[in-house]
Amino acid sequence: MTTTSTAAATYREPLWSQGRRYRQLDDTENRLLEKCLGSGGDRPALDIGCGDGSLARRLAGLGYRTTGIDCSPSAIALAAAQDAGLGHEPAWRCMDFTTDDLRALPEPAYAVVTCRLVYRWIDDKAAFLDRVRRLLAPGGAFWVVTEISGRRPAADPLQGLGITPAQAEILTAGWTAVWTADLDVLRCYTLRP
Fold this sequence. Notes:
7-stranded mixed sheet, 7 strands, alpha/beta, single chain
């Protein structure tokens, strides 16, 4: 049985249940995703913090056998409700990647692990990255999209929302290949062990 981290669920669940939605994938990000990750070829993919499931569904559309996880039951319900019944929809799991037993996941290793608009909120980034590395299959890729601090106008109340240079260094350290692309306030990372 999986559990949900109390702190994460306490914060996120009311947002999702009250209709909060986050930045949707756009054409530029979709093109980068396809360029960096390529065709899935029925290999497994894991989307951490899947929210409404848009990235997980995009991975499934690229041919990945995708699992989307989120600590919010309302987010998982929303994601599942949008499935079209085509047979290649992602599997949905309510779990907290940072605290739950990773053996509860359907695959022991993943060709792709994604984390979109979530990394900034992780408290222990080094422990989180260690868990990601343990799940990546040889030759796999970790796709991260996160906001970079200081990219919003100074008057914007969300100006400091993104990750700092020190947090970006934690994210990129120890990978054999690091590729980045900037999208306005966001940065996309493709990291390979």
